[in-house]
Design goal:
Blueprint lengths: L1 H48 L5 H14 L1 E2 L4 E2 L12
Antiparallel strand pairs: 1-2
Length: 89
């Protein structure tokens, strides 16, 4: 009976807590992963606004910098999708 109580404790208490902790850590990593390239984009965008670079130069330099980014000990990389939107009136 004691073994069943211990198993129930693990299943209903310890595992959900472990799962929440794992989800929180994963969420934090994802936020950090998104903030890295967004910071680079913001930097080059600001340089274009201030006139230090043309818009095209800023885009090219931001893209080149983001292509160099790696995570998970170099196994992960960032990809960018360029989307042009056409708005019809």
């Amino acid at each position: 009976m004691m073994i069943l109580a211990f198993i129930a404790l693990i299943l209903f208490s310890v595992l959900p807590t472990f799962n929440r902790t794992l989800e929180t850590k994963t969420e934090q990593k994802l936020v950090e992963f998104v903030e890295m390239p967004m910071g680079i984009i913001a930097k080059y965008h600001q340089m274009a606004i201030e006139g230090d670079l043309s818009e095209d130069e800023a885009k090219q330099m931001a893209l080149a910098a983001i292509k160099q980014l790696r995570y998970d000990d170099g196994t992960g990389y960032f990809g960018l999708m360029m989307i042009r939107c056409l708005f019809l009136r």
